[in-house]
């Protein structure tokens, strides 16, 4: 695979065959408590390469905690976490955790951009400092990624000069700049004005359709239904239901899932299709490879 292909992240056939055998993310019987608050009580969760997986459920049910375990920010009291062949729950040193986080992108509700750096500098700083990429290559890739999230005209702007949706798209591009194997999205639209939610969802939808492995914690139920290959419904630290998106959303087996979805979909006025009209025509990685 040459540098361009690796950056674009198409999945060759042999990788797809390997992926069918071993999940990229594999959580087995995870237990985690904060003091006497048992937050995760036997979580089993798998994500295959190229899959989009959503974790949905009531507030406080442990969704964000699961993501933080995957990226090594939290260590469970028991259970195993495998990410791309690494036993995350056994990592001990800071350098091991940094190496993991280069491979696992994490986009939060808060954008956490460096306010004193331009958009382009926000994208190049980690690849050049931690990724061993030359400044010229980092800038070239950053510009492609900014085109990818339709912010190429903002490369010299500072985060404070951007809308929330634009800042979140920079945060997604910054995660991509590390060439992660997967990206975790933790309620990335929750803090946005309604009119900018659609532009962020459009970017995520395109990543999913281009084969980026994604784990989404979201309250955007219609979006989760649309983009996910599989869905986990959590309640009180347990997986109550898991299955293909169509099954969980259209034919939930558990009464709790059904009740939750009725409430969430009923009370949520968003219309995914309407909300994704926020930005111009989709631009895909396979188009961008010619720009590299
Ligand atoms: N650092 C922490 N210290 C103590 N308790 C915590 C910590 N982080 C999370 N919790 C608790 O763990 C539980 C699960 O939190 P978590 O954020 O994973 O839920 P969630 O399903 O993502 O909720 P929401 O949808 O509201 O974001 C909650 O009871 C929360 O208060």
From TrEMBL:
KW Cell membrane (keyword) present: yes
Membrane association type: Peripheral membrane protein
Keyword ATP-binding: yes
Single GO MF descriptor: ATP hydrolysis activity
Main location: membrane
Location relative to the cell: Cell membrane
UniProt superkingdom: Bacteria
GO cellular component: plasma membrane
Keywords carried by this UniProt record: Amino-acid transport, ATP-binding, Cell membrane, Membrane, Nucleotide-binding, Transport
Signal peptide positions (record): none
Pfam families given in the database record: ABC_tran
Boundaries of every ABC transporter domain copy: 25-261
Family: Belongs to the ABC transporter superfamily.
Protein name as catalogued: Amino acid ABC transporter ATP-binding protein
């Amino acid at each position: 695979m040459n540098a361009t292909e690796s950056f674009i992240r198409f999945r060759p056939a042999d990788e797809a065959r390997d992926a069918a055998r071993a999940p990229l993310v594999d959580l087995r019987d995870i237990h985690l408590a904060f003091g006497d608050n048992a937050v995760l009580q036997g979580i089993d969760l798998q994500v295959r390469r190229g899959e989009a997986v959503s974790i949905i459920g009531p507030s406080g049910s442990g969704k964000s905690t699961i993501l933080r375990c995957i990226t090594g920010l939290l260590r469970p009291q028991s259970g195993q976490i495998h990410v791309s062949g690494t036993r995350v729950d056994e990592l001990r040193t800071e350098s091991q955790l940094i190496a993991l986080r280069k491979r696992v992108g994490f986009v939060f509700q808060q954008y956490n951009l460096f306010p004193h750096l331009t958009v382009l500098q926000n994208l190049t700083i980690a690849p050049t400092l931690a990724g061993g990429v030359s400044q010229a290559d980092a800038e070239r890739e950053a510009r492609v990624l900014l085109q990818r999230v339709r912010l190429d005209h903002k490369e010299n702007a500072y985060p404070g000069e951007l809308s929330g949706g634009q800042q979140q798209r920079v945060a997604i591009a910054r995660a991509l700049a590390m060439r992660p194997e997967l990206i975790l999205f933790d309620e990335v639209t929750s803090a946005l004005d309604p009119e900018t939610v659609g532009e962020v969802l459009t970017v995520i939808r395109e990543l999913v359709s281009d084969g980026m492995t994604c784990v989404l914690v979201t309250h955007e139920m219609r979006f989760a239904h649309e983009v996910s290959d599989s869905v986990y419904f959590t309640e009180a630290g347990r997986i109550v239901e898991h299955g293909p998106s169509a099954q969980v959303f259209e034919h939930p087996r558990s009464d709790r899932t059904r009740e939750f979805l009725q409430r969430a979909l009923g009370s949520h006025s968003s219309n995914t299709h309407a909300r994704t009209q926020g930005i111009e025509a989709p631009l895909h990685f396979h188009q961008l490879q010619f720009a590299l």
